[in-house]
UniProtKB/TrEMBL annotation, chain A:
One of its GO terms (molecular function) is structural constituent of ribosome. It is found in: Mitochondrion. One of its GO terms (cellular component) is mitochondrial small ribosomal subunit. It comes from Pygocentrus nattereri (Red-bellied piranha). The keyword Methyltransferase does not apply. InterPro entries: Ribosomal_mS29 (IPR019368), Ribosomal_mS29_met (IPR008092). GO terms for biological process: apoptotic process. It holds the Pfam family DAP3. Transmembrane segments: none annotated. It comes from the Eukaryota. Keywords: Mitochondrion, Ribonucleoprotein, Ribosomal protein, Transit peptide. This is Small ribosomal subunit protein mS29.
From TrEMBL, chain B:
InterPro entries: Ribosomal_Su5_D2-typ_SF (IPR020568), Ribosomal_uS9 (IPR000754), Ribosomal_uS9_bac/plastid (IPR023035), Ribosomal_uS9_CS (IPR020574), Ribsml_uS5_D2-typ_fold_subgr (IPR014721). Belongs to the universal ribosomal protein uS9 family. This is Small ribosomal subunit protein uS9m. The keyword ATP-binding does not apply. Keywords: Mitochondrion, Ribonucleoprotein, Ribosomal protein, Transit peptide. Residues 354-373 have a biased composition (Basic residues). PROSITE patterns: RIBOSOMAL_S9. GO terms for biological process: translation. It comes from the Eukaryota. GO terms for molecular function: RNA binding; structural constituent of ribosome. The gene is MRPS9. Residues 343-373 are annotated as: Disordered. It comes from Pygocentrus nattereri (Red-bellied piranha).
């Protein structure tokens, strides 16, 4: 951030807070309006935008995602409410929180010649699991990893208009539209890897089309994008290639980050029906089947980061948030062993920081919400849950 | 009964206190006409003798009842009677007024006026022919007092002792009689207009300087207002093993019943039926209801609440919890704050329940489709 803009923003903040005549806020800003300490603009924001350098010191503070990274990394990854907030505030600010920091430390220290470790972020509804995952993915991409991000696995098990019987295998079903969308987004995210990685096997799609051995991955992806019917199989082939080549040979060595949000969808039920009105099991869907193979820890050179989600889940009660409840027996056995990382509601400091951020962005318009009383009311009504707080402040 | 049994039928048939059998015997009509006459005249009224007999029977019955219950007949009060009757005649009826009751006849029989005229047919009271003799005589007396006060004022002025700052009556904490109460006092029906005129006259009396002289007359028509908050029950503060103060209270709303334990811990967490209140009440309105009593006394982050609630829907449960929390807070709050809580409506149980569905209608108020033909 260049200094003139910093000063301007400081002055604006100071002016708006002075006019609200709140003694406490003025104190805090007075501490921060010190031109000798430019990296601490205010108590809730940090200028450290590189997740590699995030440490415990930055816990509870907001950092800004650079817009350039945004478009490549997260074409589809951010939750819809966060995208709306981004559009309103004209910036993408994510809070640095304890679970994400823990995960980043684990990733730094992990040994990548061992089979991939599985991490599961779990917590109550609206705690910030998806955003923590996005923070970690930002870290991974700055480190130069290949990011395989499935934004919401639940989208693949429900609301599918076209369900085609699979061309390659008899018992399976394809989902061309979902596979197509995902391939397009994958292409946007990992442009630079597509030319480097080569296929190891010949894939035959139809009588006339096939992809030879040694062709760049980009061709595989284009094949899927242009020929919609075989897109699900392309996804399967892609996953297989990446699995084989992650962390392998020295010259094209890359680390693979598999990020699945809502992993409990893979072992739950679907709402899709076959033509004879019988239910489709998740195994019978090509995309799910291939993804399950990906999540097995029989490959090295990467990490598997997952999140449990009750929000999009089918047939699970609202109060369920523990891995056992959401994954079910089968899912738990498949995912076992994994590293569970709990995500909880805001602590006092984090709540303070969120509140100051909203004040700074002039999101809390109501004069009562700027008082101490109003803050206590907000704490009570939202019980420090991030998503409930966000919804509450939306109409204040 | 002071009637003239030897009287022949005259224009005074339409007096209310006469038993009609006497008259019909004079006329010697057939029994069919006699029956028709009875219906036309209205229900049979109770005579003085009859009521006296009832009173004696009641007293004897009271002594018998005391003997049955094995208690002392001399010190047998009305409450004891009610208790014994409820024990001896248990009733499953919901309407309390339909259950068997044993009370003094003065309370049970409606008050009625004695016969207003003498043997010669001349009424006793000089205002009988106004129709509402008690009311008009009251108005006349009151106005007489007004005139007397004016005369007294004039006499004081003449003597030169007229002062405006005489002793004033204290009227705070009391209210005028209601129309029903006045009707009960005068034992006759009054219209709304009459009642208004009465109040206006009383106010006029009170506006005069020397009205303190008529204090006892005026106080007969005023009733004390009860101080509401003195009746409030405050739950006792107990201490558990760690020395933390807590209080228990219950609340009800519609069909929901809630019972809570309010602990003076300092975290501000609320658990309902074992779940966090955020999960139990996803709707914002319910959580706001829960917040209201704590926010009103500014003790939001101070207490821990453990609640169990059952019955009703989510709004009813939230209302029940709110009442329970307010009641539990009474033991941690000063008397002035308790009064302000009562005025805010936090301590009043909501009397609204679901209204009964009536036959001939689709719901409590909704009627079936009206067809013109």
């Amino acid at each position: 951030m260049n200094l003139p803009r910093l000063y301007h923003r400081l002055r604006l903040t100071a002016r708006s807070l002075h006019s609200s005549a709140n003694g406490q806020q003025v104190e805090k800003v007075a501490v921060a309006v010190d031109p000798d300490v430019p990296s601490q603009v205010s108590v809730f924001r940090t200028s450290e935008n590189d997740p590699t350098c995030h440490t415990e010191l930055h816990a509870g503070q907001y950092y800004t995602l650079p817009p350039a990274h945004m478009r490549t990394l997260f074409p589809h990854g951010l939750p819809p409410r966060f995208q709306m907030q981004m559009k309103t505030f004209n910036e993408a600010c994510v809070m640095v929180r304890q679970p994400a920091l823990e995960l980043i430390t684990c990733l730094r220290k992990a040994d990548y010649s061992e089979p991939a470790l599985r991490y599961v972020l779990y917590g109550e509804k609206g705690c910030g699991k998806t955003l923590s995952l996005c923070h970690v993915l930002h870290f991974c991409s700055t480190q130069g990893w290949l990011v395989l991000h499935i934004p919401d696995a639940h989208l693949w098990v429900k609301n599918c208009r076209e369900l085609l019987p699979s061309s390659s295998r008899p018992g399976r079903f394809d989902q061309p539209i979902q596979a197509l969308n995902w391939l397009k987004n994958f292409k946007t995210t990992n442009e630079h890897f597509l030319s480097k990685i080569k296929t190891t096997q010949r894939y035959v799609w139809t009588k006339r089309e096939s992809t030879e051995e040694g062709r760049p991955l980009g061709e595989l992806v284009d094949q899927g994008v242009s020929r919609v019917k075989s897109s699900s199989d392309v996804v399967g082939a892609l996953l297989r290639e990446l699995r084989l080549q992650a962390g392998g040979a020295a010259e094209g060595a890359f680390r693979l980050a598999v990020a699945v949000d809502g992993v409990n969808a893979l072992w739950g039920k679907t709402t899709l029906k076959k033509e004879d009105k019988s239910e489709v099991l998740p195994e019978e869907l090509t995309l799910i089947h291939n993804l399950r193979k990906m999540l097995r820890n029989d490959w090295c050179g990467g990490a598997i980061l997952t999140t449990l989600s009750q929000t999009g889940s089918l047939f699970k009660p609202r109060s369920a948030y523990l891995p056992m409840e959401l994954l079910g027996e089968e899912g738990f056995d498949n995912m076992d062993p994994f590293v569970p990382i709990p995500v909880s509601n805001y602590s006092d400091k984090e709540f303070e920081s969120c509140y100051l951020y909203y004040l700074d962005r002039n999101w809390l318009q109501h004069p009562h919400s700027r008082t101490e009383d109003g803050k206590k009311e907000l704490i009570f009504l939202s019980s420090r849950n991030p998503s409930i707080l966000e919804r509450l402040c939306a109409f204040l | 009964l002071t009637c003239s049994s030897g009287r022949t039928v005259t224009a005074c048939i339409y007096s209310l206190a006469f038993p009609l059998q006497l008259l019909s015997r004079q006329i010697c009509v057939s029994s069919a006409a006699w029956r028709k006459n009875l219906a036309a005249a209205g229900p049979e009224k109770f005579s003085e003798e009859y009521i006296k007999k009832q009173v004696e029977e009641f007293n004897i019955g009271k002594r018998h009842l005391a003997n049955i219950m094995g208690e002392d007949p001399e010190t047998f009060t009305q409450e004891d009677i009610d208790r014994s009757i409820a024990y001896l005649f248990p009733s499953g009826l919901f309407e309390k007024r339909a259950r068997p009751v044993m009370k003094h006849p003065d309370l049970l029989f409606p008050k009625q006026t004695a016969v207003q005229w003498g043997e010669d047919g001349r009424p006793f009271h000089y205002m009988f022919y106004t129709g509402k003799q008690a009311y008009y005589s009251l108005m006349h007396d009151t106005f007489g007092k007004v005139l007397a006060l004016e005369k007294y004022q004039d006499s004081m002025r003449n003597k030169g002792l007229f002062t405006k700052d005489t002793r004033q009556m204290s009227l705070t904490g009391s209210r005028w009689l209601l129309k029903e109460e006045l009707e009960e006092l005068l034992v006759e029906n009054i219209s709304d207009h009459d009642y208004t005129r009465f109040l206006q006259l009383m106010e006029r009396l009170l506006s005069m300087p020397y009205c303190a002289m008529e204090e006892e007359f005026v106080q007969r028509f005023r009733r004390q207002l009860e101080v509401q908050s003195s009746k409030q029950e405050i739950p006792a503060v107990q201490h558990d093993e760690n020395g933390v103060a807590f209080s228990q209270a219950e609340g009800r709303r519609k069909t929901a019943k809630a019972s809570i334990k309010l602990r003076d811990c300092g975290t501000g967490s609320i658990t309902i039926n074992g779940k966090s209140y955020l999960l139990y009440f996803p709707v914002l309105q319910d959580r706001e209801q829960l917040m209201f009593p704590l926010h009103f006394v500014d003790m939001l982050g101070r207490f821990n609440v453990e609640a169990s609630v059952e019955g009703g829907g989510h709004c009813a449960q939230a209302g029940a919890l709110r009442l329970a929390v307010s009641r539990a807070l009474l033991s941690f709050v000063s008397a002035g704050e308790m009064e302000s809580m009562r005025q805010a409506g936090l301590l009043t149980p909501d009397p609204r329940v679901k209204e009964r569905k009536k036959p001939g209608q689709a719901g409590a108020r909704k009627k079936f489709t009206w067809k013109k033909r």
